[in-house]
Every structure is written in structure tokens, then in C-alpha cells.
Amino acid sequence: MASIVAEQQDLFFEFDFDQAALAPETDKTLQQCKKDIFLIGCFRTDQKQQLEWIRVKVDEQTCGKYNVRLGKGRNGWINKENPRIANPDYVILYEFGNEKVVYCYKAGGSSVYTEEEMRQSGYVDPKGDYLVYKLLYECSFPEVDVSKILALYRERTTWIDGKPIYLTGREIIAAQRPQVKEKKRQRDSSGSVFDDSPIMLDEVIKGISYDFHYPDHALTSIDLFSGCGGLTKGFSMAGIRSIFASDIDENCEKTFCRNFPGVPFLCKDITLITKEEVDELIKGEVPDIIIGGPPCQGFSLANKRRNKVADDPRNRLFFGFVKFINWYSPRVFVMENVKGLLSMKDGEVLNTILDEFRHAGDFGGYDVEYKVLLASDYGVPQNRERVIIIGTRKDLHLTPRFPEPAQLDHKITVDEAISDLPQIEACQGAEVMEYPRDPQNEYQELMRANMKYVTNHVAMHHTPRLIARFKAIKPGQSLVDVWETHGAVKRGAPDEKSSIKFHQNNQRLFGNQPAPTIAASFQSNFIHPHLNRNFTAREGARLQSFPDDFIFEGMRTKMSWEKGLSQYQQIGNAVPVLLAKAIGDCVINILNDN
Length: 594
Prior knowledge:
The protein is an alpha/beta fold. It is built from 20 helices and 23 strands. The termini are far apart.
């Protein structure tokens, strides 16, 4: 072993490593390093001779070094205990302001330098502690386009220029993948070849009529925790006009505003919204109905005292919903939530919530009832259960009630929902495509009523190994049923099978049955009934009963570092549209006393 002291002989910290490790390995490609961690950091040529300090003498005898500052400074938020941060496999450095000047190094671990140790190493004007990475030797990844990666980071995250980025090789490949052209692609007689066409997504959107024709004196709603707009869409189909909506997710805002132009939207934490802000946006209108689904998973009973419950920060989102009811005292409110709400803390959470509603508003509170509704009872091709709480203002003397199941001769199945969409394979599809056939049933006619083209229908990119696994999974089976041959492998050890098994991973759905709950993770939970791939966003939207004229914005799938919900997550989090419409119809009947 050799002890290599970084530049200054009296420096307290020393790097210890085997000289043989300095011998450069055979150049690798990103494809070979998909699971390796890459640190992408910057250096400045105009400050403190940074490049000279970094490079030192990167040769067969001496290693270089690169630092990031610990703490919460401009380039901080560095958790030195995180293995992904402490031990990257490679370091890629670019010149700040000139992302074409790039150096690549094989990394060899890291250590913390104190401010004094940084000063002894020759670093000018250090501030605080630093995490210093050992650079063993220069290498090359010419396929890495730092400019493209940083541009995507600026677009999709709150990233600050200059802050270090930690990505796997797989994430770098995905970040550099060309975007799918937003064009219509038409199938030929073989059903497998696509040719370009001049129809663009913007042209298709311009052709969609968003001019909702509400009846005279239509009821109005305020839509909280709106997500992408599942409840809002269903209520609008029932004839209820939204006058305001809010959610904290910026991609939900993009999707909502795309599909409900003219409806004021506030992208903000509900607990920080003021009545003055809302009043300015709704211009004096008073909502008849307030709807929404505040998260209650972390709800605290706070010693069961109402004032303590309201003050508990874990309950702040629910009380943001109550705040709006107290402000506007709507005639009716509708709250939706997961079925698990009924059993939280042995039902005490539900009782606390109901009690809060019974004392809300300025007219003596609300009469409140709740019920679990099954989406497939209302024409949705999905067995999704949701708790619905309906409250009517006590002074109106109206009884809360719930929609009766639709008079269906059978439950809508997965095949009935999606069989008219282009039958694309993995890695195929486009943002705009033609329907390959006419509607095959009433459900498909309803979904296509306002559309001539299919959008949001791009299949995910699957590896050959994953496609082989899908081929082995039969309807009703999942990953655990093909474990020995096609099971998941351990991270970093592709020749060893993982011991972790998830029954819901890669479950192939039955085409002749309704789907199970389409959750936010459905992009990896489920396999198409007949094709060897996961569902597309549009297929998921069909299973949630979103009509095809509902366009989803934001990234299609989400990388770990990206901000905001993906299209898949927006779809999975939403209330099924036809279930929402049935609730909206019921609310109208309640207020009309029918």
C-alpha cells in the first residue's frame, strides 16, 4: 500500500490506496455503466484556480481531488452518509458557463476535509467543511451531453446552477433520449410500421372544444386538492361549473389548465392560501359546492380535543379543506378519500373528521354521511373503492345521499375499454396517432366523442430481459409466478436473483374483467392483457374513464430527481371521471330535492 498525500505534505488527511488501482480500466460506455453512480459537478476557471486544485497531478503516482461543500449553502444539501453521494463510481466535471469543456474521472471514494485542511491543501478561502472525492485517473464518456442533462434539470426541477448532481448511468441515458416527435403516425396493413404525418399535437389540441355548455344558473364548485382534474371533469359533465381550483403540484396545474381553460387555478400549499387571494380570483361568486380529497394518512387525533386536533401540523391539509368550508359555507361539500380512512386508528380518525364537518360553516354546521363507492358500479372499467363523504348545510334541511349504481348489464372490462386504441409494442407509439378502427362498444364511443386522434399513447422502453419476463407471465399472474427464470436481479449483481418479491409487480390483467385499482404506480404494477409491455398513459386514462379529449401534460414517466407528478401519477391519483359524474348528478338531485 502507498500513502499518497494530497498536494501538501503537512495535510492532516491522507488518501490510502493500492497503486495498481491507478491503472486505467478499459474504456466503458454508458450502456455498460447503467447502475454506476455519476457525480456531475462544475469548476470555475475565474475563481481560485479551481481546475489546478482539482487536477493536481493526475498520473501514475498522484491522485486528484474534487470537492463539494457540506451544509446548506448555495451548493449544499449534501448528505455525506448517503452512499450514492459519498461513493460515486465516476466524476464528470464541466466548466461553469461553458458546458462543452468536460473532464471525466474514475472516482475512488471520499473523505471530509475541515476548513483548515482545505486551506492546507491549497484551496483558497474555504468556507466550512467539504466532502472531497478522490480522482484516480482520467477516463472518457464521449456520449455524455452535459448541456442536455443540465437543460433538463433546469426545466424539470428547482435545481440551482452549479449544484452537484448524482445520477445513475441509466438516468443519464434517459435524460439524453430524444423526445418523441409530436406527430401523427399511421399504421400500415402490417400493423407494425409508422410513417410521419404533418399533424402535430398543438393542432390536435386546437381542434378540441373546451367550450363547456353549462345550463342556465348552473351550480358552481370550488375544487381543492384537484390533482389533474378527475373530480372536476366528472362534475363538469354533470353540469356543475368550476369557479376555482387549487393543487400544490405544478404538473397537475399544467394538465388542469389545459383541460379547463378559464378556470382560475392557484398552485400553492392550501394552508398558505388566503381568502383575499381566492376572492380576487372568483370575483365575488359564492360556490354552491366545495369538493376535494385532502390526504389524511398522517392524521393525528391530538388527544381528541378539537382545538388540539386543528393545531396539529399533521392535520393541516384536512383543515385547509375545512378552512374553505368555513369561509364560504357552501350548500354541499363532497370529500373523497381512500377506503383505509374507515379503519385509521380504529375509526377514530373518521369520527373526528365527521365531527369537524358537523361544526363547520356559518349556518349551524352540516348533516354528514359517508359511503364506500365501487367505481365499476358506475361504468368505470375498474374495481376501485373510494370513501365519499357528503355534507349538506343544516339550514337547508336536505338529506345527504349517494348515487345508485348504474343499470348495467355487465361491468365494463379492460378489453372493452382499450381495444380500439393502436396496439403498439414496447418502445412504439407517438404523442398523436390515428385510431386504427371504429369504436367497438358504447364505452369507446363515449371516450372518443370529441376526438379524431389518440394522444398520450407512447409505450415505455423495456429491455429485452423485461420483455422476456412479460412473455412468461399469463393473465392473473405476476412477477412471483415466474420467479426462478425471470425474477428481478440484485442491484449491482445481475447474476444473482433478488430475494424481495412483490405480488403486485408486473401483474398481467385479465382482458375480460374490470381492472383492479389503477394507483399512481400503475406504470410498473400492470402488464397489458395481450401485449408484452406496461400500459400507456392513455390506456390508464381509459381505465380511469378519462375521455380521450383530456390531454395530460408534464413528463410521461418520472426520474427520481424530477420535480412534479408524471402523467402516470396524475392519472393514478385521480378520481375516476364517471364515478365523479355520478356523484355530481347526485349532488344536483340533492339540491333540487329530487
